[in-house]
Amino acid sequence: MSGSARTTVLLVDSHPISLTGLRTILEQFPDLQVVGDAPDGDTAATRYRQLRPDVVVINSHTGTDAAQAVRRVGALAGAEPPLPAAPTMLVLLNDTAAADRVRLPGVKGLLSSRSGSQELAAAVRIMATGRSLLIPTARPGPENSPLEKLTVREVEVFRLITRGYTNAEISAELTLSQSTVKSHIQKVMEKLGLRNRVHAVIFAYEQNIIHSGS
Questions:
Q1: What is the rounded distance in angstroms from the CA atom of residue 38 to the CA atom of residue 56?
Q2: Other C-beta atoms within 10 Å of 126: how many?
Q3: CB of 167 within 8 A of CB of 123?
Q4: For residue range 133-154, what is the model confidence (pLDDT) as tens digits?
Q5: What DSSP designation does 39 have?
Q6: Helices marked H in 103-211
Q7: What is the number of alpha carbons within 13 Å of residue 209 lying toward its C-beta?
Q8: Which helix (H) or strand (E) holds 91?
Q9: How many other C-beta atoms can be found within 10 angstroms of the C-beta atom of residue 149?
Q10: How far apart are CA 69 and CA 107, in angstroms?
């Protein structure tokens, strides 16, 4: 992380409108600072060398464009002259099928592009500390996921539970009534055999649904 008290961010997004949206979201948090942006991987690599941000946030509109940006920025880890630290990248996905294509060296986090502003800010902070964050972005495939029993909405609720959201916060984030949220939580706990929220977080880490490591 840089010497500044604020976490610095470089945004990579080929769509000007969504780029403006991301900047607006992140700059509402006093501890986060967007120091630059880039429309593609080549420009992002150049800007990274100039700005040395703590985190590079890549918004994926297609798996191909995100992978290209990840490769260009990630290649800086072995470039000459060497950088003080390898780039840390957080990729926003709107398609879970693209996850395998962008899970490349340097990518420490994957997050749904539908995530709320608080969740995005929290993910950036986690990346800046050197930890990793992998969160389910939609309903997983039934062949290998521990969440196969859940509906899409229940996966979203489970994801927010593991991020520490209260019932009221989940209600606001997903635009659901609190009674509906309680119902979803009860179903999640029953289907996954969980006792409480703490058990849900432990389950998520044990199943590698989310993980944190140096």
A1: 10
A2: 20
A3: no
A4: 765 444 444 445 677 788 878 8
A5: S
A6: 117-128, 152-162, 167-174, 178-192, 197-206
A7: 26
A8: strand 89-93
A9: 15
A10: 11
Give the pair of three-digit tokens for residue 199: 């058990």
Pick the closest to residue 59 from 50, 49, 69 (CA basis). Answer: 69
Q: How far is CA 189 from CA 66, 115, 143, 199, 204, in A?
A: 35, 22, 21, 9, 12
Q: Which two tokens stand for residue 32?
A: 């986060």
Q: State how far the alpha carbon of 21 is from the alpha carbons of 16, 106, 139, in Å.
A: 9, 24, 25
Q: How far apart are CA 1 and CA 97, in angstroms?
A: 31
Place of tokens 């703490």: 198
Please report, for residues 44, 104, 150, 168, 211, the alpha-carbon distance to residue 19 in angstroms, rounded to integers and kept in the order given.
13, 23, 32, 29, 28
80 vs 199: which has the higher pLDDT: 199
Helix (H, G, I), strand (E, B) or coil at 25: helix
How far is the CA of 165 from the CAs of 36, 124, 157, 198, in angstroms?
30, 17, 9, 12
Gyration radius from the chain CA atoms: 17
Helix (H, G, I), strand (E, B) or coil at 100: helix
Bridge partners, 107 (sequence order): 89
The answer to whether the pTM exceeds 0.90 is: no
